[in-house]
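Risk register update: the risk of archive-format incompatibility is retired. Evidence:
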Amino acid sequence: MSIKDSTVIKIKKLNLAIEKYSNGQLAKYDLTHPQFSVIKVLYNSSRASMRQVDIEMMLSLSNPTVTRLIQQLEKKEMILKVINPEDSRSKLISLTQKAIQLKEELIDYADALERHVTEKLTPIETEQLNELLGKLQG
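Archived output:
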């Protein structure tokens, strides 16, 4: 199989294209795609705060990566980090009022990103793609 036909390379290129597009769209909010991913997880949580380790698991990112993203978002006053009163080794992450005020706009953006990524696919193809990606993730 040639490198241009490699599934792994195609997935990686698609991921890079999505991040590049997303970073451009999110610039007006002073956010990157990975930072937005952390905020989106918090938006979708049923709790007011989440443990950092839960964010790591939801995004399949390492502790150092999520720590860096959280530090960046704290500086931008989008999230708060506090010690978990139930476990002092754990940190609880919550949204600030600034992030909460942007929720509707950013959720609309997330929906627009989904549409942009799948605009060349039929609804059935989008469903099939999601099933296949789910299989690949295990």
